[in-house]
Amino acid sequence: MDPVEFLSKLEKTTIMAVEFDGGVVMGADSRTTTGAYIANRVTDKLTPIHERIFCCRSGSAADTQAIADAVTYQLGFHSIELDEAPLVQTAASLFRDMCYRYREELMAGIIVAGWDPRRGGQVYTVPVGGMMTRQPVSVGGSGSSYIYGYVDSNYRPAMSKEECLKFTAEALTLAMERDGSSGGVVRLAVISEQGVERQVILGNQLPKFSTV
Amino acid sequence: RRIMATVSVCKYYPGGFSFDNCKRNALLEADISKLGFSSPAARKTGTTICGVVYKDGVVLGADTRATEGMIVADKNCSKIHYISPNIYCCGAGTAADTEMTTQIISSNLELHSLSTGRLPRVATANRMLKQMLFRYQGYIGAALVLGGVDCNGPHLYSIYPHGSTDKLPYVTMGSGSLAAMAVFEDRYRPNMEEEEAKRLVRDAIAAGIFNDLGSGSNIDLCVITKGKVDYLRPHDVANKKGVRTGSYRYKHGTTGVLTKTVTPLNLEVVEESVQTMDTS
């Protein structure tokens, strides 16, 4: 008779981000679980940190929401002081500082991605433990294990925006099919100099593969 | 050096969990067990609470049973708490935690509202609640459904004990949340009319009451619209106490008395002392 919400809420998830020339494409599933119950089937795991910087959240929902709120505040303050758009690397560093300092208390795997005028589209990954590294393609969350092969074999450098969107949607679909902790809808975001475009691909509109 | 006036009376926490009470609790536990007793179990509201956003606002619903282990401690407790004139919050989990948390945030929000000169926003209440619950890392067992109407329209949040929140058009919490969610997933539509929304919430709570052992008794509703709040307690007395069909008293003489002996106890007063009460 224990209430479901005393278990901590996890976003075990599949998250992904890809750099292309001129910006980044980010994607995530939409499932949040408490134990075996899906607490939220339409979660938005692509969280805005600044106008052209987003993060994908995986791990403990409470931890990642709290970290994202703190970094949003710090980055906003920094941006006002600088009087210009912050760098994606700065945002990633702020995430890294917090995730590393409190690594024993936190369970958070974050992918930071965005566009800045200095270096264009960038993807930085900050996994559990607090490492930070820049990667052209990054996957995260419990569902990522199932798609490393697909990503490694299908990624080509210098893909266009549309190719990146298709690549991300297909990778996420494959992960969601095989990982019990991922599911729901596919949320996509494209960040470029022009701004942010967001998309949702509903369950019946996901790409079809022959075995799934 | 000038210090900005703060809007909350609460102690400023430098960060992290406050261990002040842990030592005291440990000593109390040790003392109590030495005497052979066990410390009282926290009263939990094994509950069904839910909320729904409809055309003109939000409808919040809750059952009214509070349990202490397997016993019903309160058959008609109120789980829909006041936060501000336009924001109410249903609470599931540890009864004391939900009560105190909502009261603290209600107080701070009133001060904040006086400082800003504006009606408080639901997002503000959500922030305050999630930041406090995260600070306590889940040890404050408060699972909340926060709903209200502000200048940006109607809003509904679910808030978990560890401090994560979800902003959704319909939410359920508590031990009966799965039963209530089943009703919502079947019949929820966006932009419902008020009567339909009230019926939906009533049915969701009823599902929790009749299918979950931790929930029971009556159904309370709270309908919040722009400028008006209908606190319907009770909205539906789903479990009326039955009327006994006959008298079950035994008539005098049912048990035959065989013998009767009376033994007076001669007690002598050894000492008599009077202690005056301090009425000053």
UniProtKB/TrEMBL annotation, chain A:
Pfam families: Proteasome
Main location group: cytoplasm
Keywords: Cytoplasm, Hydrolase, Immunity, Nucleus, Protease, Proteasome, Threonine protease, Zymogen
Protein's cellular compartments: Cytoplasm; Nucleus
Biological processes, Gene Ontology terms: immune system process; proteolysis involved in protein catabolic process
InterPro entries on file: Ntn_hydrolases_N, Pept_T1A_subB, Proteasome_bsu_CS, Proteasome_sua/b, Proteasome_suB-type
Top-level lineage group: Eukaryota
Subunit structure: The 26S proteasome consists of a 20S proteasome core and two 19S regulatory subunits. The 20S proteasome core is composed of 28 subunits that are arranged in four stacked rings, resulting in a barrel-shaped structure. The two end rings are each formed by seven alpha subunits, and the two central rings are each formed by seven beta subunits. The catalytic chamber with the active sites is on the inside of the barrel. Component of the immunoproteasome, where it displaces the equivalent housekeeping subunit PSMB6.
Name of protein: Proteasome subunit beta
Species for this entry: Cyprinus carpio carpio
Automatic annotation (TrEMBL), chain B:
Example of a GO biological process term: proteolysis involved in protein catabolic process
Protein name (database record): Proteasome subunit beta
Family: Belongs to the peptidase T1B family.
Function: The proteasome is a multicatalytic proteinase complex which is characterized by its ability to cleave peptides with Arg, Phe, Tyr, Leu, and Glu adjacent to the leaving group at neutral or slightly basic pH. The proteasome has an ATP-dependent proteolytic activity. This subunit is involved in antigen processing to generate class I binding peptides. Component of the proteasome, a multicatalytic proteinase complex which is characterized by its ability to cleave peptides with Arg, Phe, Tyr, Leu, and Glu adjacent to the leaving group at neutral or slightly basic pH. The proteasome has an ATP-dependent proteolytic activity.
Principal subcellular localisation of the protein: cytoplasm
Catalytic activity: Cleavage of peptide bonds with very broad specificity
GO molecular function list: threonine-type endopeptidase activity
Entries under InterPro entries matching the protein: Ntn_hydrolases_N, Pept_T1A_subB, Proteasome_bsu_C, Proteasome_bsu_CS, Proteasome_sua/b, Proteasome_suB-type
Catalytic site positions: T47 (nucleophile)
PROSITE patterns: PROTEASOME_BETA_1, PROTEASOME_BETA_2
Signal peptide: none
Keyword match Electron transport: no
Record localization: Cytoplasm; Nucleus
Domain of life: Eukaryota
The entry's keywords: Cytoplasm, Hydrolase, Nucleus, Protease, Proteasome, Threonine protease
Gene from which this protein is expressed: LOC109084387
